[in-house]
Structures are given as C-alpha cells and as structure tokens.
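re: ur question from the group chat, yeah i did fold both. here u go
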Amino acid sequence: MRTLRRNTLCPVLLAGLAAVAWPQSGRAEAEVAEEGLPVAVTLSDGSRLRGTTPLRSVDLQTTYAELDLPLAKVARIRFDPRREQASFDLINGDTLTGVCFPPPLPLDMLFGRILVPFEHIRELRVFPKGRPGGLALHFTFEEEKGNEVEDRSGSGHHGVLVGEARRVETPGGQGVQITQPSSHVLVPAETLSVRGWSELTVAVRFRLDRYTTYGRVLSRGREGRGGGFGLSVGGVYGGRPYHGGFSVRLGPDQSVGDTVPRYAELGRWYQAVGVYDGEAVRLYVDGKLVSSTDVPDKLRGKPLHEDDGTDLFIGRCATRRTWRDTHIVGVIDEVAIFDRALTEVEIGELHHTDGDGSRLEPPPPPPPHSWPRVMPRFPPEG
C-alpha cells in the first residue's frame, strides 16, 4: 500500500498529502470490504480523484449518538473548512451532521492503492451502483423480435415495448417508433432506480415526425409524482412553439432545471444529453451546450430523489399518464444512462452524427448514414 507523497512538481494534484501514514486520532483501523465502492474525492485545493475504496463504514458522532454508517448507504460526505463538522447525505434523502475523525481513506486508482488523509478531503461522493462513469443503461433496440428491450450495459435494466410502440429502421440500425399517447418503452420501478445517485448523465437520439404539446422523451415518475429526472424537446401549444428542457428532482418538491426554446425540426435527427453534477444542471444538443442552471446553495450536491414505484418512460410522460399530449410522435434510438456527470469531451465522444444521421468523425464515415452502436467506455478519472 502506498501513501500519496508531497511533490513540488505536481502541486495541484498532490498538495497536502503526505508520504507517511497519518495519525488515526486514537481510532482503530476502519473495517474494509473485499469489493471496493466507487467514489469521487474532491480535495481541499479543488483537485479530484476517482477510484474505489474498500472502506466499509465511517463513524459519525452526533449530538444524540455515535453512529457507524455503512458507506454504501451514503451519497456524499462534506467537511467544513475548519474540520469541526461533517455532513452526511444519505441515499434515502436524509442528512446527518456531526463530528467525524476517520482514518486515511484507502483509494484504489489506476496506478495502485494510496491513502488520502480525510483532513485534506473537502467532499467524498459514493457511487453505490457501478463504478464512476459506469454505463448503467444502454438501449440500442436491436432485438429481432418480441417486446423485450435488452439493456446492453450489462446492468440488467431491461425494458419492454408498450402499446403500439414498434421497432423501425434508423440510420444506426433500429429504433422505436412512437405514434400514440399510450405507446412508449417502459423500464419498471423494480428494474431501475436512480434514488441516491450523486451525479447523472442521460443521452438519447431522436427524430420528430409531428409536434405534440410537451414532447417528453425521457421521464421518470409514477402517476402524479415526478421521479429523478425528465427530458423534453418541446412542441406546439396554442399554435406557437412550446419549450423543452431537462430537470432533476432533489427532494419531494424540489426540482432544478431549465427550459429551452423548441429546437427540434421535423424529420431531423438530434442527440440530447442531460447532465447533473451536483453543482449545475446542463443540457447539450448535438454535442453543444444550450442550457446551464446552477443548483441553489441549499440543494447543492444533493443526490437524486424519487419515491418507491418510480418507472422510466421513454417516449412519453411518466407522471401525467392520462394526458394525451405528453408523448412524442417520432423515433427514438440509442438511449444511455450513466451514473456520473460526463465531461464536455466525453459528451463530444457520444455525438458523431449530422442531422441526417451520417457520422461526422472520424473520417471516413463507416458506412454513410450510420452512427456507432458501441457506447464509449469512459474510465474513472485518476
């Protein structure tokens, strides 16, 4: 095991981390697990480290009890600058505050295991599902028959075609055509939950053939109650263009997002990507940033919130299930959900198509009017 060493040649990444094990504040070594949890560490100087930790739990002394908190139940730990208090955001939405003196954090990175003293950590985010940057869901709609939609990420979050949703040919292979309010792709609540996720990226390719009012492409929720996120492309209301947007839910009645003017022209392929990183909510269209909204201070860093029984609807709204104008009329292809916020460079890697579906990069296009069917594998940042 190694401990990060001070290095004047790389002060930004390694500032404040010592070459020897740090004091344990009188506490015994924390219990560790055989299989590590993915984490993202923000240091006091703003540097970031990603990897996995075998640490299983952390002690927190509150005003009423000393708690041994399983790290898998924690979404985020924040330390105040004077180290007098620590705030634990749990995956169920609760927040605990108290005094915390954990031993150095063992962190397995690309170049081996290091020890990061907690007194140099400003924030620790835990990713209970998959590794940081992990592809949590990936639909290509390439199944030959039947109503089941296979999750090609390997996470087992399979979906099903509902109503008159059917597979059709697209520039990338196959997609799903939505023509009716009752048609959509369903990923049921028992299959996928985003509750407690500290970061999120959702991506979808789509083509509109006719405008409805709302044009909801991706929607999490149950009847009358929204879920972790929603993405719409807009439509027509009262004969005028109606806005779209991307939003996330951070509490029972606390959503953050932004609206954008309707941008989708009929008959043209687009890729929309929504990103939440704890600090801001962003929307990208065809690889370019079109909207960014800062998260209010009281909600900054909060994990995604949703109730039990929250489904994922692709192609229509999941909350207003009796409304007849929340769906899209068009084709959806290449849906992906990541458990962290992708960077702009990574978002650019997801987008390689012109409006007709032809691949832009790298030349020459292989073949014309197609896009890649394999989602890029983004490694954790190290």
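okk and heres the other one u asked abt
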Amino acid sequence: MNFNFRNVVVPVLLGLAVVACDKKDMEEIAPEAAISAQSTSLATSAQLIFEETAEGSTFFPLSGATLNKTHGIENCGLDWTLASVTSPAREHEKAIRFEIRKGQPLVGSSGKIRSEVTVIKGSSDDRFSKDIWYSFSVYFPSVGFEYDDERDCLIQWYEDGSDETTIRAENNKVYLEVTPANDSTEQKTYDLFSSNTALNSKSKSLAAFSDIPKDQWNEFVFHFVHSTGSDGLIEVWRNGVKIHHITGRNMHLKYPKWKMGLYKSSFLAGSSPLSSRVIYFDNIRVGKPTATLADMSSGIATGTTTVTLADTTATTATEPERVTSTDTTSTTSF
C-alpha cells in the first residue's frame, strides 16, 4: 500500500546556525511523584486541539476538519519515510514510523535530508495560544537508532531557523535545548531521561546524562507558556513524573511551528557513519490552556516493557493524496 506525498517546497533562509546560549533565569525542580493510574485517564477531546493516534484510516491529513488535521509534511515522498505500522504498537494497534536515509532524494528547495510533520503553526492557527500543552509517546529502536555522536533533531518549536527550542539526540542521549535568554549567548540543555541539572550548550558534556532506553515506549508531556520574556515557562513530565520546571524566555521571534520527525544535517554532510535513522511516535496531542496532565497522558504504563520488533519493515497505510502545504515561510532547521 502506498502514500502519495508531495514535498513541502518553501523558501529557505541561508546561513542560519543554531547558537547556543546561557539562561540565567531558568530553574529546575526535583521530580514529583508519579501521577496515579486513575489520574492518567484518556484525554478528553474537549481539552485538545490536536490528536493523532494512527488508528484511523488516514493519519496526518492536510485537509478536513478532524482533530488530527496537520499543517504540513516535509519528506522525500517515498513510502518508507513516513508510515503507519503495527509493530511496535504502544496502546492500540498502530504507531507512526519516521525514517531518513543517507543518499535519499533531497527534500524541498533547500535540499535537506528530513522526514518531518508540522503539527500546528502558531503564527497562523487561531487555536494556538501562548499557554499550550504538547505530548507524545516515542520509541527508539536499538536497530535503527544506533549510537551516533552526530546529533539528530527530533522535535522543533520552529521560528526562523536560529535559537529555537528543540529536542535533539546525540551520543545516545536525548535532551531539550532552550532558546537563549535576552542577555545571553548560550542555550541550556536539559536531559529528558533524568532530572539532571541543565548544561550550557556551548560547553556541554553529555556524559552525565542518562542513555536512551531503547526498544520501549516513553511518554513526554510539555506545558509551555511561550514567551520572549521572563514569564515564559516549560514544564516537562516523563511517564507521569515531573522532571523539569524551566522559567524564562523560550522563544525569540514569534509563536512557533511544532514539528516532529527526523532531520539530520550530518547525513548530507557525510560526517555520520550511519546510513539510516528510524524513530516511532504515537499518541501525539496538543492541548488547550485548560488542559491538565491527565488530559495529555495516555493512562497506561510506559517505560517499563520492552517490545520486540516482529518486523522492522514499514507497512504504509492507504491514504488519499496529500495536498501540498500552502505555508510560504522558511523551513530551515538545524
């Protein structure tokens, strides 16, 4: 079964680079106790503005009025780059598989190697608000997401390609990198598999961060107050346990696009020794300001059961032809 994807082709701002920065007004708290199974009941759709579970006949549709309507898709158009799969399934029967390969057809006018979905664009979507929630479950396969000291970009709160808040993988670690403070030139880096103290990005050593737990599902919830000032907030939960509380500036220009998937510049540069990258997502949600942790959580145990992959070949779901995104802003990312 095949997808018919069209690449999102947009102008690109060249010469941008992510500049790490320090953030003096950030703080971090110790993890809270895990929320109870009762409190992690399935999300109430009234509190959500987006939800994708991959269980329907289509996923990430670019048109229509369903709760999983998606802003845009960027990939090379081949079946394996974005697919619905039945293994490893998390809560129900399906999950979403992203893959990129060294030497694949390049994506967009900028000619990058990526497979990404823009779930929501803050600057043009009336549902977007300064106070907003995000959540997803993620699975890193031991075959497909091997160690690499060249970093991957997994999640972007994208503004213009510089100084964004992002989630990245590097040296078998996964971390949140936060937009610089107004009076600083360094980002802070937060371990997403522990509550370790943040590091300055320019001088970071990831040795103290926890290794990625492979071949299991983990669920992350993020509560954002998007801001260029001191009232900004990012709260982070992993599997129902609060691991970070970060205050201060977390955007530098405008409300972001929330992107997820895989982008790896070292595949194009040739500096990574690997030839492909695979990651799985499920239960992707965006919540209103009135949402709660329970609304954004799946309500099932996560991070404890190893799933054995019966078949690592993606099975692509049948879907109507996707419409090319009308977004004309730059999609340069790093």
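fwiw on the second one: The chain has two helices and 16 strands. Residues 1-43, 304-334 have pLDDT under 50 and may be disordered. idk if thats what u expected
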